[in-house]
């Protein structure tokens, strides 16, 4: 549901940008020729674009509110989970800025392996 509303929000936003860019800055609309009355006149096109802009903007705001409500419902921020295992001792790291005396670095202190999958990466 959230993904569908997000895609719909993107489509409405793109349509809103397109409708706004088609309008003339003076409010004259598209300015296409045609019959003096009806939808294809400059006045009819301007009225259509103005109404379209209004309804797309209303739809954009409503979708934003609905998406915020759905996001709050789906996250369930009522509980705080702490999954950190604080019993693991930290691995001793060599100081990379320490001066090298004999040209060879001292071997790192090997600690007892743990169940932590990230402990192997730090070595």
Supply the helix-strand structural class: mainly alpha
Strand content: under 5%
Radius of gyration, in Å, reads 31 Å
| Run of helices and strands | HHH
Measured as a percent range, the helix fraction is: 40-55%
Sequence stretches where pLDDT stays below 50 over 5 or more residues: 32-36
Mean pLDDT: 74
Gross morphology is: elongated
First-residue to last-residue Cα separation: 43 Å
Report the count of strand segments: 0
Number of continuous helical runs: 3
What summary fits the major beta sheet? none
Structural descriptors:
single chain, mainly alpha, 123 residues, 3 helices
Structural overview:
This protein has 123 residues and is mainly α. It has a domain of 62 residues. The protein is built from three helices and no strands. The longest helix has 34 residues. The protein is elongated.
Helix/strand layout:
Elements: H1 2-22, H2 42-75, H3 119-122
Question: Outline of this structure?
Answer:
By secondary structure, the chain is mostly helical.
């Amino acid at each position: 549901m959230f993904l569908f509303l997000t895609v719909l929000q993107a489509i409405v936003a793109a349509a809103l940008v397109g409708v706004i860019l088609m309008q003339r800055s003076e409010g004259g609309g598209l300015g296409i020729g045609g019959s003096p009355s009806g939808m294809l006149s400059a006045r009819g096109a301007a009225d259509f674009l103005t109404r379209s802009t209004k309804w797309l903007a209303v739809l954009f705001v409503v979708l934003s509110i609905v998406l915020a409500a759905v996001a709050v419902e789906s996250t369930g921020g009522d509980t705080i989970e702490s999954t950190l295992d604080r019993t693991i001792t930290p691995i001793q790291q060599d100081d990379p800025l320490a001066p090298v005396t004999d040209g060879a670095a001292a071997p790192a202190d090997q600690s007892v392996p743990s169940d932590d999958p990230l402990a192997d990466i730090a070595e």
